[in-house]
Structures are given as C-alpha cells and as structure tokens.
Amino acid sequence: MLAGRLADRRHFDVILSLAGRTAKPLAQPVPVRVGGFGGAEGLASYLRDAEIDVLIDATHPYADAISMNAAHAAALSGVPLIALRRPAWEKVPGDQWIEVETIAAAVAALGAVPRRVFLALGRNEITPFAAAPEHVYLVRSVDPVDPPLAVPHAIYLTARGPFSEADDRALLERHRIDVIVAKNSGGNATYGKIAAARALHLPVIMLKRPVLPEVEGVESVDDVLAWLDHAVTSAASRGV
Fold first, then answer.
1. What is the separation, in whole angstroms, between the first and last Cα of the chain?
2. CATH number for the domain formed by residue range(s) 2-87+212-237
C-alpha cells in the first residue's frame, strides 16, 4: 500500500526491498529489490552506495531480525529511519486467547489430547509442530509447504489474503477446527480468523510480538506520508 501511494509522488524515487521468501510476490508499481543485504553492515553499505535519503522499515511485526538490522544500519549510515508498525489486535469480550512467547510454547499449549488445529503461521514457522504428531493440522500459506510437515495428518491450502470473517468461519467449520495458532499481526487483512474464532467460541493460541528496536515509528501509511512530507519541507527550508 505504501509503495502504491509513493509511486504517484514524482519527487520520490522509491525502491521496495523484499526478503524473497514468497515465490511469486504481487506486482508492484515501483522498482523492487529481492534478497538480503548481508546483515546490518551490508544494508548500511547499500544505503550509502545507493545514496538513499530515507529508510522506511515497513516489514512484518514478527520480522524482528530485519527491524534490528534496519535500526543498526540507519545508525551506521546516518540515514533517517521511520518504522511503520501497525497496532496489534486487542483482546475483546468473547475472545479466548492463550498468549505464548514462542512457537515451542504454542506447540506445548496444544496439549497431548488430539485436536484439529488451524496453523495460521508462515510456512517457515510450522516445522516445530512435527513434535506433536497426534494432532490434525490445517495449514494455509501463500506458497506450497515443501517439504510438508512431518506428521501423519495435515491438510494444505494455498491462498493469499485478505480473508473475510465469513470465509474463515466457513473454513473453520468445514474442517471442524478445535483451536487456532496465530500471530498477532494486526490490521484487517487476516483478522477474519480471529473474529470467526470468537463467533465459534474457539480458543486461539496467540504468539506474542517480539521486542523491536526503539526507533521513531508511526501506525499508518498516511502517517508515513505525512512524515516524509515534513522531512522534504524541512530539507527544502535548509536549502538541501
């Protein structure tokens, strides 16, 4: 969304950096760079070599390594940094959340009695659930899970959000799901499963957000644009 809004502003040259974990990312209206930089030092070198004026950390709330590298690289290079961090979902009456710190704790929270589990996690994060093969797992991911989870009973769906509450409720009912394992991603695109779980009185094992670096941050695309406009105005007033 941010890239799309910035593409219309001719006074910005935008480069969108993707980690490369999605095989077929959505087409973007700005130039795209795919792959890592070689840690914070590599990113700092890139910022200097490419003469970047502003770094925006708009990564997923759980991609803490990327956010840490961005903060370190900004400090090393002297490039101003703004973080776009959408607010976490808040628990409301009717929610049955079991909040855990780690994926391993989420596995343990399932218990030993066989359950039908909807894993609403990234495909690179489900491997630890092989330690609990007694459950039946429903896995939804953007790209196919390869290799599949090493359990006897797993169902795989490939789909890209957003997902509505009605669609997710139908999904949970169709697969007779007993419990959901999810991350507190925030935003509207994947909130459907949380609202559906509330309506169906299902528990949600919720992975807490990681600790992120303390940098200047905003909560919306509009806030980023306002911050950028202010930065441009300030630079112009200084004759930059």
1. 28
2. 3.40.50
Matching residue, tokens 């040259």 = 13
pLDDT(239) > 70: no
Find out whether 84 and 217 touch, Cβ atoms under 8 Å.
yes
State which H helix or E strand residue 34 sits in: strand 32-34
Q: Which CATH class is domain 96-207?
A: alpha beta
Distance CA 80, CA 126 (A): 35
Segment 177-220, tens digit of pLDDT: 999 999 999 989 899 999 999 999 999 999 999 999 999 999 99
Q: How far is the C-alpha of 57 from the C-alpha of 85, rounded, in Å?
A: 8
Q: In what order do the strands lie in the sheet with 217-218?
A: 55-57, 81-84, 217-218
Backbone phi, psi, residue 30, to 5°: -130, 160
User: In angstroms, rounded to a whole number, what is the distance separating the alpha carbons of residues 52 and 133?
Assistant: 48
Q: Which residues, in sequence order, are bridge partners of residue 155? A: 138
Two tokens, residue 131: 């330690």
Q: Residue 148 has what DSSP assignment?
A: P
Q: Locate 171 and state its tokens.
A: 């999904």
What ranges do the domains of the chain cover? 2-87+212-237, 96-207
